[in-house]
Structures are given as C-alpha cells and as structure tokens.
Records
---
Amino acid sequence: MLPKLALYFLRLGIIGFGGPPAHIALMRADLVDRLGWVTAEQFNDDLAVANLLPGPTSTEMAIYLGYRLGSMPGAIVAGTCFILPAFLIVLALSVAYVQLGSATSIEALLYGIKPVALALVISGTVQLGRPLLTGRREWMLLFVAIAGVLFGALDVLLVFILAGLALLIISSSGRALVALVVASPTEPVARAASYVSSADLALLARVFLNFLKIGTLIYGGGFALVGVLQQEAVRNLGWITQQQLLDGIAIGQSTPGPVFTTAAFVGYLVAGIPGAVLATLGIFTPAFVFVILERRLLGRLRANTSVQTFLRGVNIAVVAAIAVAAAQLSRSALVDGLTVAIGAASLIALMRFRLDVLWLVVAGLVVGIIRLLGS
C-alpha cells in the first residue's frame, strides 16, 4: 500500500490546483468513489477532525488518510509526497524570483496576478467569517481582535489564543478550565519559540523556530497564513516587504499543492535554499504530530463543545488578521485603475460565479504579458 500511497499523493501534489477545497474534493472523488480505499463515513470523520486541528487542512487530510491506510509509515509517506511537488515548484520559482526579481519583466508579469491574489484573500476572509459571525458577541470579538492585530503589542498568534479563551469564557465560564487544559500545550511552545527566536542565534534556527511556531498555532488554513506572515515576517521581523509577501501569495496561489508551501518562498528570501527547507519543515511538522497524536491519544476531544467554542473564537481572530493583511496589501496590489478593475472583477468572479482561481491567475498573467509586450 505504501507505494500506491506515494504515487497517488505525488500525483495529487502535481495536479492539485485550487487550494484546500479542491484538494479535499479530489481526495474524496478518488479515494472514496473511484478507488474505494476508504468509506464515505471514514472520510467525513477524518475531515471533521482535520477542521478542528491547527495547520493546513488538506495536508492533514492526506496525513489522516495515509495513517488510516498504512499506519504511521503511511501517514509520513502520504503527507510528504503531497507536500514535495509544491515545495520543489515554489522553490524553483523563488530562485527565479530572486535572480530576476529586480527586472522589469518579472514585475510586469506579476502586475495582473497581484490584484487576483488580493481578491482571493478578500474572498477567503468573507468565506471564513460568514459562518462565524452569527451574533453581536462574535462581531465585538472581531473588532477587538482587529484592534489587537493593528496595535501590534502582542504576537498575532497570542491574539488568536486569547480570542479563543475570550469566546469560551463569554459562552460558558464554567467550562473555561477545559479550554485552558487544551490550549496549555501550545502556549509553552509559543513562549519557547519566541524566546529562542529573539536570542542571538543563527538565522536558520530563527527561520525554523518561527515557522514551527506558526505551524503549531495557526488556524484557518492558507488564508490565515497571509495574515500571520503579514504580522510576523513583514511587521515584527522585517524579513520581507509587503511587496514580496504579495508576490509570494501570487506564487503560492498559482502553483499546485498545499498553499502553506508559501513558507518556502519566504524562507528562501531570508536564507536561501536551507531557509526554504527549514521553513517548510517547520510549518508542516506540527501537522504530522497533531494527526498522529489525535489518532493515538486525543480522539475524545473531537466532540468536546468547549474545544469547538475555543476554536471558534480563534477562527474569528484569524478573520481579523486576514482582514488587516488585506487592507495593508491592497497598497501594493492596487496601483492604478487597471489593477483596481482586475481586483474587482476577480472578486466578483470568485464570490458570485465561484470561478476556479487558476483561470483568474492565468487571466492576470495574460494581462501582464500584453502590458509588457505593449510597453
């Protein structure tokens, strides 16, 4: 079974455009309907738990399915093979970006893709927020979280944890202790990572530890990564500029496989190929750990209402971080009337007509090529 898992997830990592929803739909169509490796009930059960865990949902689904079909070796093979093609593609594009990034041709090609990427971020914010913001207390928590992200005194991931605890306490203070027990394993990780990262250590160690912290505590999938990188890599650490982050989003969204491989782009800009490797290892390692631990030790937590309330509060803070990032990134993406038109059209296409993002990226690339040839 391990060779079959390796071949299937390598293939999915190569053809899997469209982000987590597309990846999960492909897995279900192939593994449930076409190959019959798992039942619909098993698939839905794994998906429900993957949605509760921090980290990249579609990658965790690959790990879950690999574990179900091949125990721990299957989990490692499935997750690694799903990540590897996207990592190699993003790394190759990152090398080209750094080598040619100052050239006018590169900027021209990305000209039409950047407003598409911004539209995707805005669309993702709405999609994440719509089922969460159902009452006055949720909206109040959103505005408080936005203020917390903008103020910048707290680590953005700490804002996520505090929002989860706040909603839990508001909802039912008698069950707050359960959430504190659940949240406590992640808090020492955040404190330790922040302490080590602030010390005078090698740059590669800082890259790995910061992305390990992000992978451990991030909720909301690839869209949440945008908000976290805006705060961590751009504002707090100054590793990259807003312009480079937007370029990284464009590259990540125009390539197949997990969106979290955008970490490789940032890692490469900071510390070359070793930085890309360590950033990828850091951000994806927690997904493997969480899935294997959940399978072996934490299965009872999936139905716990306190856990679900805590995660709901976290996700509201995630929406706040993405909204702030979108507002800040708009200055780099919307530079003239044409980019505003491309962004608006892309947003309508995504939210009204549910058009596949790949076609929008291609259209943005075409606009860039035409503009370059005409100049």
---
Amino acid sequence: MSRPDDRVLSAGPGCRVPASEVTWRFGPSGGPGGQHANRVNSRVEADLDLTAARGIDDEVRTVLIEKLGSTIRVVVDASRSQTRNRHRALDLLEQRIQEARETRRPRRPTRPGRGAVERRLRAKRQRGQRKSERRGGWGDE
C-alpha cells in the first residue's frame, strides 16, 4: 500500500493538492472496549486548510471556500487500521472537493404535455362518474 502523504488530491483542472497539506490528528476510536481499544490510535481526523493549501487556482479556491468554508474536516474510524483510515480520509476529502467543484445547471420549469393533461382530466372524469353512480337511490326502495 502506498503512503498517504505521497498522494495528490485531484479535483479537476486547477485543483491538485498534495496530501502533505493535510493536517492529521489521531486518537482511539470510540465505541465499547475490546482487544485493541486502549492501545491503538486508529481514529483519524484530517483537516485541509483551503486558504493556505498549495495547488489550487485562485478562482477555484474562492468557489471552494464559498461552498465548504475555509477548512474541510473529515473524521474516519471505520477500520482498525490507521493507514486504511488515512486512505479513506483522503478519499473523502477528494470527494468533497470534487462535489463542491460541480456546478448544477438551474432547473428550467416545464409545463405538463398535452397527453399528460388529457390523461389527468380523463381520470378525474372517471372518478366523478364512479362517485355519481354511488349517489342516490336510498329512498327508492
């Protein structure tokens, strides 16, 4: 397995952050005790300061800071291995940066088509017909 610090977080053009920019903190994972509970610091907190990170163009940096804030924090304690948790934290950081870079096109409101309108009106007529057939006839017997 490669070392996490050798990796580059890539989120498209203008955004290639070396993993050495990530600040790491480690601690014991939560939950009930167990065989490795008091010995292994497998919980990983990864912080990426977007204001000071190298490898981000200025216009990309402003978009990221606007959407994510000045720092991104990820906490992972899924595995008992600190190395696996570090790799997972880098994956999550990269995923968050990529999602923040995506721009969604605004929804263009549309109207229902003629066929849909006709089907809806036909269904309403059928429901009304059914209800009118149920009515009356109580006093005729």
---
Amino acid sequence: MRAVVQVVQSASVSVDSVVVALIDRPGLVVLLGVTHSDSESDARRLAGKIWELRVLDDELSASDTDAPVLVVSQFTLYAETNKGRRPTWAAAAPRHVAEPLIDTFCAELRTKGADVATGVFGADMHVSLVNDGPRTLILES
C-alpha cells in the first residue's frame, strides 16, 4: 500500500457536486493506493502507523489529539510513468482486491478510535483541502 498523508486544517470530498465527506477541523487526509501484493495485515499495519505518526503540531499524533482522518482511494499512486508520456495503471490492484483493503484500513483506524471520513471508491471525486504547513508525507507498507 502507498499513502500520501497530508496534515490539513480542513478537507472535503464531493461527488457530482454533493459533499460526501468532510472534516472541519485539523486532521489528516490520506490518499491511499493498493497494489496486487497488498494484504489485510499491510492495511492494518499502515493504518496504525499513520494513526500514531507524530506529524501534527508539537510532535503530536492523530491519536494524541483525536484528529479526524479523511481517506480517499487513489489508484493513480501506482502509475507507471517510465516509458512514454501516457501512464499505465498495471501496478494498481483491481477493484475486487483494492476496495476491501481500503475498507480494512478504515476499519482499523476506527478500531483505534479515529473519526474517519471516506471518499467514494471508484467515483470521480473532487478533493478540497487546506494543507497545514504544508506537511505531506509518503508512506508504504
């Protein structure tokens, strides 16, 4: 799994001009991609790492501050761009593999006490956010 984690002041996801997810206080946005070899244990481990990551103000984690987390599926994180100008998506897991692992990731965060908002898997989403810092990290399982 590959995650781009952004510390934000606020964020939302809209589908067809309708807001489907919102965090209206400081928290994290996680753009999450899944590849073919990922497993449920990868999803749980990465969720735990992100929840405990000391990236917020005063070196606090989301778990320390009960910061909300907005998770957005992002297959394009596994784009192959080595040849030509047109990316390929062969490294991204297909829906029947990726969607359950993203659900596992979100469930693990909720188990740990996180307030989790999500985008809509496979939808054409518009993500709006106010990046804080900016602080953006890339993590892999």
---
Amino acid sequence: MGADITVFSLGGTVAMVPEADGRAVPALTGDQLLASVPGLANLDAKIETRDFLRLPGASLSFNDLHRLATDINACAADGIVVTQGTDTIEETAYLLDLLHLSSTPLVMTGAMRNPAMAGADGPANILAAIQVATDPAARDRGCLVVLADEIHAAARVRKTHSTSPATFASPTTGPLGHLVEGHPRFWSPPTPRITIRLPDSPDFKRVVLFTATLGDDDQALHAVARHADGLVLAAMGVGHVPQTYLDALAEIALRIPVVLATRTGAGSTLTSTYGFPGSESDLLAKGLISAGFLHPYKARILLTTLLTAGARREEIIQTFHEAGDVNA
C-alpha cells in the first residue's frame, strides 16, 4: 500500500504567476501546483493538498507557523510536505523543526523561479520533496529542506544567494543527503532532536537580532533592546564586539537573555581563546549565552520559542549548548 502524503501550500514564488504588469504574486492553489509536477502519477502515494495560506514568505508570522505546526502534529499522513516562499525557509523550517513532535517525515520546499519563467524549478523541487516524504529513512529527522535534489537539516540550512536556484546550502556541515534517481540517500542516521511544546494560544515573545559593526557605539543597541524580551547578538568573528558595546551588554544581560552568535555565516563562536575586552570570554563572563554553531537567524528562532514556552535561564543555556554543540 502506498504512502499517504499531505501537502500544505503557503504561497511564495513556487505558487506565483505574473499579473498584467508582469510582476508575480501568490495565486496558485495546492492542486494547481501539483498539476504542474511531472512524475507524480508514477509514485506509490496518495496525495492530499491543503491550501493553508497564500502569502509571500516574508509575510509569514510566528502565529501562522504555530497554527501550521498544530495542524501538522494532528495530521495522520505518512509524510508531510510544505511549500512556501524561499525568503524565510531557513527560519520557518527551524521553527517547524522545534515544534514537530512526531517522527513523521516533514519536508519543506519552494522555488527560486516562478512557474511562468524559463527553467522554473518548482515542479522538480515539489517532486523531490514528496519523494523524500514517502521514504521511511526520512522519519525521526524533524523538518528537512529539499531543493535542487539536496536534503538539508532545518537547523543548518541557509539561503546563500538572492537569485541563484542553487542558493540553499548548509555551510558548516553540508547537506544530509541527496536524491538519486528519485530516491533519497542519507549520509548518516537520525540524530537526537530538540522539540519544544508551546501553549495552545502562545503569546510569542519579542526577540531582536542585532549585528555588531565596525566603529559603532551603543546607542542603537540600547534602542533595540529597550522593548525586547530577548536579544541575539550577531558578533564579529568567533564572538567579538566593539568595546563601546560592553557597558550596554552588561546592563542588558541582567534584564533579558542575550545570545552570542557569529555573523560570519559558518563555524562556531568560541568560549575561551581570546581574553581582551569585547572578546568571547569577556562577553560570556558578562552573562551572554553562546550560540555555538547556530546561525543568528536560527538562534533568534530558538530563543523566541524557548521564551514563549516559559523556559528559565538554565534551561535556555542548556538548550543552546545542545543545539549549537557548544564546547562549554
């Protein structure tokens, strides 16, 4: 008997068509998306579509994704696929990964070229995502991101180019696997996952992301932190900031959790290599929490989810050490 697959469509470029002025907007239903995919009839799968939203990826909200996660957790399908805009997949996939409470394969995909463009990549990406979702090897892996026949972990995947169809990559670890002749090939077995349970009607906390830049003072840092419940600091290099930030960070860290990540896009923050004012060891001594290998975008998603779930400081620290593989 074939697999039952549910496809949730959220909009995005994969579902966009040009209007009279030639500019694309989300318009296609889930059924219309699947109608454009060659090879679906050859799969041993029964596919149901759900038109969940019709928005560009940049307009999705935490509440939208929480409602989607609730529906996914209640879904009895053997595998689940979500199509959405690629602008935010690296963030939404990680949020869904944290909220996905079952072992059911969950796969996200999208497109860089809309269906009216030459070389539209949506049909191939949708087919690949469904092929992964039907495979038992995708179980217990949380949320996966599948584009260009590559399979990525939600916690590691990044959009690395604004227009290239080969934009998605996992810079530090590489992909989890590839599709070969329509079959997923994973390079390693599933690993332990972090999942978080939220209230039925969560009040999502406000976590801001602040990037350290050359020659900056502390005025903007104070301003963005003033009404925040948490702060992620995208620091230079392995976790360094201008000395002008130090008094502000010490004061902010007494009020709210402040997570220290690297703005470089790959690699980990350190804990004890440097000792100057504004170094990683100085900032950790002031109460900042290391994000380790977690990219700042992912760190913001994790801190938002933990604070919304009511996690205490020690739980936040422990979870970040786990998620970021911090060498504490």
